[in-house]
Amino acid sequence: MSVDLHSHVLHGIDDGPPRLEGSIDILRAARDDGISRIAATPHVRDDHPTRPEQMEAGVDELNALDLGVEVLRGGELDVEYASRLDDETLRRFGLGGNPSLLLLEFPYVGWPLRLRELVFDLTVRGYTLLLAHPERNREVQADPERLRELVDAGVFVQLTAASVDGRLGGRTAACARTLLGSGLAHVLASDAHAPSIRAVGLQAAADALGDAALAEWLTSAVPAALVAGEAPPARPTRRGRRFLRRV
């Protein structure tokens, strides 16, 4: 069963579903997609200054419905915004309930000027960092190797399922292929906002990889290890020449 570490399943908080019915639809889609645990990661940034108690209450509400998918705590934190939060608040936003694991939002436009400094500071503060969807950023698309310094420093990278299977366009899919081929991607997640907007689709993305062992590593083994606070297992050796279908 898969572990989805990035979703906007909570209703009425950010740009996810406005009502409870939308949250229920996402959870049912996740269950049908083979997901056993899904992290609720509302935006935490200037335009969506989500408070941890909002996230926690939303998670408790959805788990009480018992829809067959466990909803985990989390947040998608803007890196600048996160640097201004105290450790108590950051730990409450810990991804999957792991207080030392943070999901950082990578912007769609531009390379953050202080990214290296901010990542270093958060690492020194004791956090493990998972970088959300850098393949959708034009700067990364132009030069995916820019991420290597961060990865070498211990940062993990999460790709969006819709990037991998081509739903977000050819340029984004090409960047996802490059990051996977270069060993610069570690987690595949939905970033689901609604059943029809960046829908869950983990299985479709896993199928697009054309490598069952790699798909399991990206959607289950690595996410589960990160949530547990453990070192992820080694990436499986690729068999054959192709591991990702071109779109």
What's a quick, concise take on this entry?
The strands form 2 sheets. A 7-stranded mixed beta sheet has the order 4-3-6-7-8-9-10. Strands 1-2-5 form a 3-stranded parallel beta sheet. The protein has helices at 20-32, 52-64, 79-83, 87-92, 115-124, 138-142, 148-152, 161-164, 170-181, 202-209, 212-228, and strands at residues 2-4, 35-39, 43-45, 48-49, 70-72, 76-78, 101-105, 128-132, 156-160, 187-189.
Characterization of the model:
The strands form two sheets. Strands 4-3-6-7-8-9-10 form a seven-stranded mixed sheet. Strands 1-2-5 form a three-stranded parallel sheet. It has 247 residues and is of the alpha/beta class. The protein has a single domain, classed as TIM Barrel. It is 40% helix and 15% strand. β7 (101-105), α5 and β8 form a beta-alpha-beta unit. The protein has helices at 20-32, 52-64, 79-83, 87-92, 115-124, 138-142, 148-152, 161-164, 170-181, 202-209, 212-228, and strands spanning 2-4, 35-39, 43-45, 48-49, 70-72, 76-78, 101-105, 128-132, 156-160, 187-189. It has eleven helices and ten strands.
